[in-house]
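note to self — DONT lose this again. spent like an hour looking for the file last time. sequence + predicted structure for the chain T wanted, 401 res
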Amino acid sequence: KNMSGPLSGVKILELTAVVLGPWACQMLADMGADVIKIESPQGDSNRNLGEVKNKKGMAALYLTCNRNKRSLVLDLKKKDGHSAFLELVKKADVVIHNNRPQVMQKLKIDYDTLKTINPQIIFCGSYGYSKEGPYGKKGALDDSIQAVSGIAMLNNLVLGEPRYLPTVVCDKTTAMAVVQGVTAALYHREKTGLGQQIEVPMFETMVSFLMAEHLWGYTFDPPIGEPGYTRLMSYHRKPYKTQDGYIAILPYLDSHWEIFCNLSNRGDLLRDKRFSSLSQRVKNIDDTYKETAKTMLNKTTKEWLEIFENTSVPTISVNDLKDLINDEHLESTKFWKTINHPTEGKLRTPAFPINFSETPFSIRRHQPNLGEHSMEILLEAGLELEEIEKMLKSGATKLAD
């Protein structure tokens, strides 16, 4: 097996911060790409978010999104920092950034500039809104995209007020779209030799994500009903209370419903017209959920899990964040990995979730300290030692303390 991953040999220059770009680039690095994280002298803002153990700039949120990378400090506003970047572009396959297009033009590192140096470069920008539209100049964060894409308002139907989901769903979903776009462009270049520019706007990515199921009646033009997948909109769609906790059970298909009613002594529900088929249950979704909820109060979570253990009815415990650390399934699939970090000691990190039979994921590098690889990367790019010394003096680059 090739432990270096399916993207082994691909060189990526990452000009990103926070979660969207770093997590996308970490996924590409997990699959074997050589990712050079290019940071300003201040470093990625996430280096200071979350718990810190030893070293300033090595906080939890940075550590979760930046393994398998090397760190190079470049001040792109300085002439020698800019020209060093262009040297790196000559030997790179992909540039990924999450600045608005105007910023890249101002820094003179936009696609048109870079393709004159390396016509095969794949240049991927991910930011709030496509530059083609009227929102193109707006800044964006996860919350603003949850608002504008309709995600926050979904909760209005259920909770009576719009709410943000307590996870950066827009950053991370868009990050997956970045990985998809970059790998597709690499495949296209493999066949044709041609590079290209890719734009992955968060707004469009999230509307496409949301409307996969919620377009509903508006799938037809003119519409034949409202948008919104009704089963998901019920106030009663939530984990069910048991005698001692919570459980998730979904007697969804007709075969599930029958097993559910029989095993929970609710034969009465089998004779009820409201629940006689899947389409009837979806039509009467609130009642379906209410009756299921009433039933689940009769036993403990463990008892229910045992009763439905060997059936086809989806039944599972409801974990909180801490439960995931000791989950028996994740333990047996060796999902949690340990990194011995030179400055931070032992760190917990999740495995890459895709299992490749021939090119498995591996952790080849710890999360880098700011500027940890500045010297080696600039030497690799062909800069002379004295040029690098000058850059260190001017502040165009720096090394890790």
